User: Fold this.
Amino acid sequence: MKTKSKFNIIDFFILIVVAGIIAVAVWFFMPSNDGDEVYVYFTVEIRETMPNFADSVPIASMVRDSVRNYSLGYVWDVNTTPTVFYTLNHQTLEMAPQEVFDRYNTYITIRAEGVLSNSEIGIGQTSVRVGQRMYLRGLGFAGFGFVTDLRWEER
Amino acid sequence: MDKNGKLFGKISIIDLAVILLILVVAAGAIFRFTSPNAAVDTGDGDISFTIRIEGVRDFTLDYYFIGLPVHDRQTNQFIGVISSIDAVPHYVHQVLHDGSVATIAMPDHITIYLGLEASARIEDGGIYAQGNYAVAVGSIININTRYVQVQGRIYSLELQ
Assistant:
């Protein structure tokens, strides 16, 4: 008695096509390594933090993107300045800076191993640009802000 | 097709439909995600357009360079090349005690006028940079350069 094969050529072809699509997708989303290898130093400004926030950011600790859990690098430096709002001086008609009591802008500089390509500065699975919003999470701290400074040096 | 739904008695029509669907989806994905990064000569001529980037911190000016390529932030499509960079103080409107509105310079903030050049396709329905990126005065544009990510508004457009 002839038995029906459990696996035919069409099923095999479908498997090949699906495997090919998965391979292309993996290749597409893998970070590119075309470019110069550099150390990237980028600074994220977190505004209006509490006075003790900067003390909670350990130097040399790892920092991750808190949304996608990518590793961003390691804390290189931490600085603070008083938070300033600009308000109108009605007498001089100029915008004047006013310090906000008990609030500080914290600047976290992160060092990462990156790749300087034609279109971006890649760090691991993401890229970094001035003006980019970043959500940070590290050892005992979290916050979000914009990239305000970007430097690099050859590895 | 026979009574069992098989073409020539061997190939199931369902299997065939699945294969065709997978191939169409794959082709669409490849087309969608592999936009060219090089300049496309559309044959209709060139355009120059200016993006107005309003109220950014003044240090961001250090990260713009003539000749840098500009890409759409979402699709990564190449839009054009920076041809000019101008910056002016950023002004804000403030209401005074007498109800009038004064225009006052905001310290540490600037407005950047970023000039781009690109090849263009011109149709009745619009002007398209690099073949298929719609460019219209007044529209908001989110761009990436190698060093900066920013949102602006298309301020002016000139056919060359």
About this structure: Chain B has a mean pLDDT of 87. Helices of chain B lie at 13-33. Chain B touches chain A through 38 residues (CB under 8 Å). Strands of chain B lie at 6-7, 11-12, 46-57, 69-72, 78-95, 101-123, 126-129, 133-135, 140-144, 149-159.
